[in-house]
Records
---
Amino acid sequence: MERNPITDLRETRFKSVEWVSEIESTNTELLRRAREEAPEGEVLIADIQTAGRGRRGRVWEAPAGTSLMMSILLRPPPAAFNISQISLFTSALALATISAIQELTAITVQVKWPNDLVTDPIELPTNPIDGDFGYRKIAGILTETVIVGREVNALVIGIGINTDWPEVPPHLEHKASSLNLICGKKTDRDLLSKKILINFEKRYAALLEIGGTTKLLRELKSNSATLHKQVKVEMLTAAESISVIEGTAIDIDNDGQLLIRLANGDEKTINVGDVHHLRPLPR
Ligand code: BTN
């Protein structure tokens, strides 16, 4: 079942990288292993997921060979972080991936708060319906936890990167794209995964140190596609309905939360939500 094991990860905690041809979901499988005491550092990559999952219960689908689908099992010591800071681990993977893409291609990728990677905006004549103004999604991250008592016992961070699409499907026109379609060459998924893991090791290790969030937050802000943009945020309320706010994304706080300034000057802190980048307001 194993395919193409990655070998050069000796300096990292990711020594057990398993690449399978097909699985239900790499996140689901690592969550299962986490509950069975699997150690930190296990990595699972699949060519096909039969039940791939995205954020907010969405399905994540990708035909074989068109994307890199990888999950990582982590067990950060509970004393090293606050439960409200979990999104910083997600950001660490996002930034590690941006850095890996920059090492391999000339593509500029940024973080769309909280969990998406997007490319440079393209000029669009109008706001796309149900899309983001000019930005195309290249990757998405799904972070899930195993909670024991009141503590995070394990964290599974899964990423799906659009690496080799034959073309952009019509329903995703202006909304998503793939590395090969932007840079014009096939992606070496082995190399990409390896570079991501090496880059992630540095950021993850730093996050576990005292004061380790400062550098990551600086990097996150300078690679943010969302900061200083006009945004619409959809949030799930406690009553399971959707609440929507619009405003300007003015900052990311020390826990990785997004600060929005509304038109009336009020400020809101967003912990989880779906962000849409809107056409800039006329000056
Ligand atoms: C999103 O954009 O909604 C997040 C998508 C996350 C997809 C990845 S693919 C690898 C891992 N396994 C899953 O089932 N989901 C994540």
---
Amino acid sequence: MLFQSIKGVSDILPGEVWMWQAVEADARGLFGRFGFREIRTPIFEQTELFTRSIGQTTDIVKKEMYNLVDKKGRSLTLRPEGTAPVIRAYIEHKGALPAQVSKLYYTGPMFRYERPQGGRSRQFHQIGTEIIGGNSPCYDAESINVAYLFFKEIGLGDVVIEINSVGCPECRPRYGEALQSHIRKDLDKYCPDCKERFDRNILRVLDCKVPGDIALLAGAPLVTDHICEHCSDHFSKVKDTLDSLGVPYRLNPKLVRGLDYYTRTVFELRHNALGALDAIGAGGRYDNLTAELGGEPKGAVGFAVGMERIILALKARSAIAEKEFNLDLFMVSIGDAAFKENVALLNSLRTAGFGGDMDYEAKSIKAQMRQADAHKARFALIRGDDELKAGIVTAKDLKAGCEEKVNVGSLAEWLKSKGC
Ligand code: HAM
């Protein structure tokens, strides 16, 4: 093979694309009912947009970004996530988004240089929502609820939702100190990554997957015991609202996120088809990001789900059924005269709204029937000289195997009567 796709970057073939389309259609329908509108941002941005928002010391910024320099020497980055670009666009086009609270959603490819393995790739796709301009804890609950209902709608209602509060810039440093003093006494026993995190991003130690470190952290202070009264009150209201909406959740006081912009509520959604390590979706509140990126301060909350992981979970579940038929009909021609007439008949049926195709390469009837099957057509419409003379087609139902003669003049009506 002369060329192959790049490691960690996959083609999505037609046999799978239909699943993506079904999931995306469900997302669009649901988000629309909650008042979200779609936004499409470019796949690359100024590098500084991401270093400022995601955080200089995070794994994404330190190790995973695809950076490039353009012809004028400007540093650009393929977007590793969707929130920062959406906030950049919100600030830039605020006049075009007049609502007090802007609700936006997006879908598209993201890029992170991670070690590729099942459910983790270098180009992956997210569907995400952002609610910008709302401080009420009801928005946090709504965001979690939308994520929950989305998974329910696509057939993965058994996702586990974990929530936590990481406090605000006032109370979080106090918690950081408490955590440091717990860890300091055994610091030499922690893994090298955690030793580094100890100084640069202490909360990320809680995310360590090394069994020895998990054991050392068993008695560590919990963030929810250290957050300020405002953050604690906010978190209680989020939980109350989730209870009244009937959204199931688990409290995970060790849940911290790999992006620095979060304040207060954070959440992750997991699905058992993916194993313990990877989340199928995640999000949280990020009240300081608009100001950090040069806009007016605005409370905001959102989440993103990973499409590749969703498809893996759906496949493990066989949760969505493939459309039985791709096409309504496939024209089969016997002889040159019928072929010529069929080209025109197919065109008029397509124009009338039916899905159809035919073979232009003058193959045998058998080969044409094989094509009809490969295209997953519902009917093979067969015409030879006899049919032409009689003004009919022989319509073969490719599932049931039975045949019927149908007048060409009433073919469209007949197809409609069959549900095409
Ligand atoms: P995140 O946790 O970095 O959050 O990513 C969200 C989801 O994207 C993950 O739960 C996962 O399903 C998927 N994902 C992330 N990295 C990969 C990868 N390398 N391969 C496959 N899937 C992946 C964010 O990106 C935030 N912007 C979410 C957010 C929106 N927070 C507020 N608003």
